[in-house]
Amino acid sequence: MVPTVFGVILITFLLFYAVGGSPSSVALGKNATPQALEEFDEQRGFNKPLFAGLWTRTRALPDVDFTKGTGTWAGTRGLEEVWSGNEKGFARLAGGHSYRPPLAFGLRPGTTYRLRVVCRSPDGASLRVRSGVAGTGPASRIGGGWAEVVFPFAAGGEGPLEVEVSRGRVEIRSMALQRKVRHVLDSQLVHFLGRLAHWDLGESIATNQKVTTMLRRGVGPSLLLTVPVFAGELALSLSLALICAYFRDRWPDRMLVLVSVALMSVNYLIWIIFGQFFLAYKLQWFPIWGMESWRNLLLPVGIGIVSAMGANLRFYRTIMLDEMYKDYVRTAFAKGRGPAGVLFGHVLPNAMIPVITNTVIAIPFLYTGSLLLESFFGIPGLGGMSVNAIHSSDVEVVRGVVLVGALLYVAASLISDVCYAVADPRVKLR
Questions:
Q1: CATH number for the domain whose boundaries are 64-180
Q2: Sign (positive/negative) of CA torsion 405, 408, 409, 410?
Q3: N or C: which end of the chain has fewer CB within 10 A?
Q4: What pLDDT does 179 receive?
Q5: pTM of the prediction?
């Protein structure tokens, strides 16, 4: 399980940190300022390298590619945009001048930065980066061919960031500003693993509450709903499947098959709407909304059992029929055992391997609750909380629910293997 669990954690990290784009942009929206996005990333560790490294990007100065346009540098005094027929565009800086990059906000005093510039100089000019009096870096002579030149500097507490051209002309193709982190392992992955080691799933973006606290508060109502649905549906499906096996190819079997197909054909949402409108609203047999007492759970539990029973009844019926045609069943009937003794004493125990597989793998989903039932009936469980988190782009909550559910699924796989040995003496744990 160790590599599997680590793989689950790694995939979860990639899905929410790398594939999904910037969490700060998703949470704060497209109109958020670069400084607000940077502060959001700083609070949650999103402004670190993804896996490892000493340098990371900063929103203080967006990367600019002058072959595609001047970007935020548009309107900079003294900067000339040049395009030629055989060469991509570049920006030309005249010598003897200082140019101020269009920073979105001030740099951190005392923090080490570096400016990566792809440039050339037909005249052999020199470049220097200055950030306040104390943050002046050494000058670098620029060659005649395109090359990347790195200018490290420490941000000073006074004065703006400036790029000085000593003499001649400097032609720049691209420019990127990066900030230095504490050490090579000061990354988002290490930060994520460190928080998981202390069972810290972060804080909700919408409510500023700890995700672990929200999960503990929501798992109780979810289990109050899903456990009765799971137990009731399992007991009813197995019992009816045994009845189908005993009355195989006769009218009780055919009727139950017809009922199971009908239950599978009706959409889950139809059962919810029917139950709420007719049973709760029209007939007023059940409460429609909330979770004030146990009566509020009767209707959603009943809907959950009915909607899930069709597929499981067909599955368990197939398993029981396979057992009914075996020699030990005919021998048991020949010895005078009654139907109940044969079905529950012989057929059911020998069919437990696929039953355990189908049952144990469904247990982790009890934790996540029922999205539709909780949303429609106002049950404050993890299902409704997950839907609200998705609607509000609350990445921390969605990631916590997905990660815990995935880990429970892995644990359930191990439990099912152990249960095989308990249920079937032919299976050994070794």
A1: 2.60.120.260
A2: positive
A3: C
A4: 92
A5: 0.74
